Structure prediction request, 153 residues.
Amino acid sequence: MTPREGDSTFPPVDMPNSDELTALEADLCTAMDLIADGEERRALVLLEKTNARLRLLVAGEHRVAALRLWAQSHSISEDWDLALLKYEQILSIDPADEDALWQTILILLRPKENPEAARTLLTQKLLPLHATPEYEDALREAEAALGIEPPRR
Prediction:
């Protein structure tokens, strides 16, 4: 007879699995819904619980996925410095992580109002990886904020 999870002979595994990560992502969606419904207090409690679980998961094999969810959690609560920190941790693992670069740029460009840093990341890191109209629009936005004239065509 094969032991089953939950049996006393089968030790619980504390590694995240896709179901656990999906549940945490669902919690983030619920928090956004609560904020939209004007229930910020309940949303913050849910985000704190989610962050506590994510804190335990970042050491495992799903580290990047857990860091990404943690960054999203901080973005939902508009804690931009902590969100940037989590995206920086992702980029320390994979400097070419397109989503982490893009989210970092969006935070720098808008809430942090640092178009120079956003422009630098766009021109040196993100656009060389993958040029999209959305990324090019962000570059034009950063350059406009810096007073740089668009090139004439």
